[in-house]
Predict the 3D structure of the following.
Amino acid sequence: MRKGFAVVITLILAIGTAAVRAQQPAPAQTRASQIPDAPSATKPANTFPAGTRPAPMPQPGHEGGPPNVEDQETIPDSGVPLMPDAPNTEEKGFTIKTQTTFVSVPVTVKDKDDHLVEGLVANEFSVYEDGTAQELRYFTSDPFPLSAAVVIDENISATTMRKINQTLPAITGAFSQYDEVALYFFSNTVKSASEFRGADDDFTVTLRRKKSTGRRVSVPIVSGPLASGPTINGRAVDPNQPRVITPTRESHVLNDALLRAVRDLSKRDKSRRRVIFIISDGMEEGSTASYEEVRKQLLTHQISVYALGVDSAAIPVYDKLSRIRMPGLKRGNLLPKYVSATGGQMIAELDKDAIERAYARLTGDARNQYTLGYYTKATASTSYRSIEVRVKRPSLKVISRDGYFPLPQALNR
């Protein structure tokens, strides 16, 4: 009897223990296996041409950076720091603080056949500021997405403008889905045709809708009510001479157009390569802004000019003559000066097919550069600082901007 009672008690205890265990939470290892993994961060699919690495997209946490953020460009995640962070200078009893500015230098390297040179490493580069060697702190060869201001000269010949109009889809095709593009036209004035947006089919539609007819050749008026000859006190000097009217000379505000583009580009994300892509003959006449003023703004905001030279800028003999300043004539071709100062590129073409190919070459050069970075002492000065980049390999052409201004220049226009 007692033995049977003990068996019953044992069974009750066993059932109770099992029930309690069933209500307890599962072991940590079991619970972890029931929770799905967190999604991993992935980059967008590569839509660049075959063989080209995708441009890095803006990453969280890159909007800050070293002091004087206005004077620096964000280095992508793939940028390689070449030196450890500066040690803490705080000592017992006193603190030493030095403000520095990060300087980013995009560099294009080409061989004797004008082909981009790939595969260079950091220790093959040297950077000099005002003649003093700088220690590289960052290096990357990754391509950058572009913020591009496309500036089209409406005062080029009607024949050339027809070629440009036929190649408009190729302008869109030269940019990637990671790039943002704005559109400007200029002749006597500067007109903004499109704010910054993706280079897609809608941008092509905007290009076609805003396309220009170009400059029309005016014929002097030699007779009729609009004609007039030399007069004294309202009377014709020689009534028998034909009366001639020369049409009013048009302005060609290239400097103002570039300054407008700089103003808008200076507000774009600094993690992008900021460039101006201009199609023009390079002539300047009637701008409010001077070349030197625009150059300062370009270098202050680290904006490069890439130019497609057309009309006289694409004819070697005329181009050389146009660079000579003659009294009463429009200023010579300014495109080479802007390109050289900012580390950009210029291609001069007359043929339609060559113009189409030039778009891709220029945007490719702008996107696929080496990026060097170093820290320099920040000073309350707007004085110009020169930059020189050297590569140890012989017979290579190194292209970079020739300097910068430490503090932003006011954009009042």
User: Anything to note?
Assistant: Confidence is low (pLDDT under 50) at residues 25-77, 86-92, 218-222, 317-330. The chain has ten helices and 19 strands. The longest helix spans residues 2-23. Residues 71 and 227 are 57 Å apart (CA to CA).
